[in-house]
Amino acid sequence: PPDIPLxxxxxxxxxxxxIANANGGTRAHGRPGYLASANYVRGxxxxxxxxxxxxxxxxxxxxxxxxxxxxxxGDPNDVLMVGAHxxxxxxxxxxxxxxxxxxxxxxxxLEVSRQALQPVKHLRFAWWGAEELGxxxxxxxxxxxxxxERARIKGYLNFDMVGSPNAGYFIYDGDNSxxxxxxxxxxxxxxxxxxxxxxxxSIGVPTRGTDFDGRSDYGPFIAVGIPAGGxxxxxxxxxxxAQATLWGGTxxxxxxxxxxxxxxxxxxxxxxxxxxxxxxxxxxxxTIATAVPPV
Length: 295
Ligand code: PHE
Ligand code: ZN
Ligand code: ZN
Ligand code: ZN
Ligand code: CA
Known about the structure:
- The protein is an alpha/beta fold.
- 38% of the residues lie in helices and 19% in strands.
- Its EC number is 3.4.11.24.
């Protein structure tokens, strides 16, 4: 699997910041900064050879958009999806939440193109609208999938907040190995968790589980039985002393003090966390999408 260039991921964050600055400081659903963000992502994917769709929906009297990008080839009956929400809250530009996940999966998609990857699975990337208003874009996508099309999706990887300034290294707890919180994900989620875990083990970074508590766009996928996984570096939760010992950073302080605030700018990013998570995404995509399924 490739090493995703951090500078490229950060260049996308700079573009999201510029888009917000030019549009009243936000990239929220229904605001011009949202559509500008979608057009930015879509333009790069089109140029890289993806087949893209701008799927529109209505929520709260405003039009929202999902950007869906299919990489040509692979088994159409064995689809791996990779998604991140592209909208911010109205209060700010949403650079960690969720420019970070949006930029990291974008650069992974562009790396697929640069390498002319020919995966066994069919790869589909998605940038969701209106997550901040209740997972509206991802829910609309899943609700409107024909049953046969839904059955082809064998896995969904979600990335929401992967550059938190006081970062933790969380992986969605597909097997509910800690036995607490939400139950396990659909069968197959545990394997996704292990694959992501393998990457962090290889770079010597300890991780912890985070529950499928329904707070991000994997929700509509697991609700229909699609295995899911992904990473998360923390939001408004407070880093404990034990977590600061494990990962460094500041105990007694939120993983992201600028969560849902105007200060969620390009200054609100932990480069090390963003770099490790972008590489983890690429590792998971390459490992899962190029694996030959058992006969
Ligand atoms: N989905 C939340 C948001 O966008 C953040 C979050 C992600 C919380 C993952 C918990 C787990 O605000
Ligand atoms: Zn948010
Ligand atoms: Zn988010
Ligand atoms: Zn687990
Ligand atoms: Ca758990």
